[in-house]
């Protein structure tokens, strides 16, 4: 109510400019909702989520993943926390954190000949979790969701399998799930 009272104190021209900006914001939200509704209809019709039109673009793979995460998890508190943390980081800090995560994956890949429940593998999974916790709060449910994505999403599976000759995505899934269930 106070905001409305403040707007009413403005000149007619200032009011019109505020309303034009508000209209533009509403049109953008409407367009986003329409796009989501079309994607939802595609998904309900049986299309795999990775094949939805909302994700088909010529964007780099990293940006496609970011768009997909925003679409799927954008309204969750965890995603909002993750996004707020990312926005506070400088580009160099972001790159450093992602490089750190990649280094952990490389170290885990060196352990594929071990049991996923081995002390060394579990130590590295703890390090991976600690790294994730710098971005967001991770409970067992979220970690299981991440593990499932690593194993069952073909794009992630292909990405992770580049680290090892073995089926590294399956190994990583097993190691994370063991960590959650211990």
TrEMBL record:
Protein name: DNA-binding transcriptional MerR regulator
InterPro entries per the UniProt record, alphabetical: TipA-like_antibiotic-bd, TipAS_dom
Domain of life of the source: Bacteria
Alphabetized UniProt keyword annotations: DNA-binding
Any one GO molecular function term: DNA binding
Pfam families assigned: TipAS
Residues of the TipAS antibiotic-recognition domain: 65-179
Statement: the UniProt record of this protein carries the keyword Lipoprotein: no
């Amino acid at each position: 109510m106070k905001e409305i009272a403040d707007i009413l104190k403005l000149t007619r021209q200032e009011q019109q400019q505020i309303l034009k900006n508000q209209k533009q914001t509403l049109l953008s939200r409407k367009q986003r909702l329409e796009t989501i509704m079309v994607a939802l209809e595609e998904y309900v019709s049986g299309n795999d989520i990775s094949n939805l039109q909302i994700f088909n673009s010529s964007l780099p793979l990293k940006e496609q993943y970011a768009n997909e995460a925003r679409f799927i998890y954008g309204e969750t508190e965890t995603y909002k926390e993750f996004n707020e943390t990312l926005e506070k980081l400088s580009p160099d800090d972001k790159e450093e954190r992602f490089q750190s995560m990649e280094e952990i994956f490389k170290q885990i890949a060196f352990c594929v000949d071990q049991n996923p429940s081995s002390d060394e593998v579990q130590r590295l999974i703890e390090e991976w979790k600690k790294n994730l916790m710098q971005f967001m709060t991770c409970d067992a449910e979220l970690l299981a969701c991440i593990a499932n994505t690593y194993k069952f999403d073909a794009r992630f599976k292909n990405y992770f399998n580049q680290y090892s000759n073995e089926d590294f995505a399956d190994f990583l899934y097993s190691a994370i799930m063991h960590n959650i269930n211990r």
